[in-house]
Amino acid sequence: MVQNTDLLIVGAGAAGLWAAVAAGRAGLRCLLLERRHRPGLKLLLCGNNRCNLSHVGSAAELQADYGEPVGSFLAPALRLLPPTALRERFAACGLPSKVINERIYPASEKADDVLHCFTDQLRDLEVPLLLNCPARKITPLAKGEGFELQCGKLTLQTRYLLLATGGVSYPKTGSVGDGQRLAAELQHRLEPFRPGLAGIEVSDAWLCPPRNTEVSIPLVRLTILRNGQPLAITEGNLLADRTAVRGSAFLDATRIIGRQQLNEYGLELDLFPEQAAPELAQMLERGWQKTKQAAATLNACGLEHFLAQGLAAKFARLFAGGSFSSELSQALKSISIQVRGIRPLKEAIVTIGGVSLADIKPESMESRLQPGLFFAGEVMDIDGPTGGYNLHAAFATAELAINSICQRLAPAAVRTKAAAAPARRPAGKSSKDKKQAWGKDFWQKRPR
Hints:
alpha/beta; 21 strands; disordered C terminus; FAD/NAD(P)-binding domain; 448 residues; 15 helices; 5-stranded antiparallel beta sheet
């Protein structure tokens, strides 16, 4: 039995790691629990292993980008930790960042470096981590004095409890819904799980290349229609293989169409968003004069061979006359896409659904139903667009939760510690010492 712990953090993903470091810096007696054999497994996959940390913009701009109701719920967390503050925090810990197309990455563009940034600080702050330790059951203690947590073969007690277990996508990383299950057992409502930022399955043959082939377009614009009326517009790249169409434009669309019945929605694709229809008509005319072939003309306009062939067949009637009128150029800027489905939740980048925001206080991340219980990250029904928004939400909600807990425990002490610099690796320890020091002195592996 472990007693007299200020805080137990369940889940050593992005939100849990940030929370543990923040708690350690504030001097809290905390313990970080992880069901898998190592922390940060999903963090290592973020941004194609480059770890897109956040997005450039003010707190208000990010709030608007999340959409409602998520944006309003996250507003207090975003004000506490806007992108500039997040970059400063990482820089102070020895992890500089850079901006690529308004997306914030570690300067090295390596997710490994982000994970090491967290684990170095946890080691230096002497925050214990228990691995292979799945949370089984939460029991509130009498008189609201805290919680008892059954974790593997251990029974732990704590004054405050933070659930940061993530969503339910990529279950091999440990995101299997433990936090949502535990919250439901304490009478919290759960919003249905749906895939977010997932590939879209389409019926359009020209967008479905053969097996082991992928096609891409750097920039497209996608108009989302609901019952025939424009609802939203997304922009970004397009990546397609035989299973689905991905890329940021299509991934962002699933945040919208994934919440309702698919048959209510339609998609219109603009393959040339940077050219107005008259300009595109001139491009097509120049290409045709050189090649006199439809596919070669589209090739000359920048489309890959497979896409060019498919579109040449699709619009054969418009090409047949050799006249590049507004009809053809407009057709290439408003191609109707037939949606068959969305790729399964296990392949989704984020989870739509989770603990209902109605049961959580946005100003503190504390449960409205169970005082002393806090939430951070994707365990809640929060999700954002591509571009670093989901990691930023995890970090910001974790920061707000720890800040709220610290104010409960010792308001004066928290204000004093808030300006303290993050812990750095002790002098004399290089990155080569990392594995030995971490494995010997820090990781405490526990049986399931």
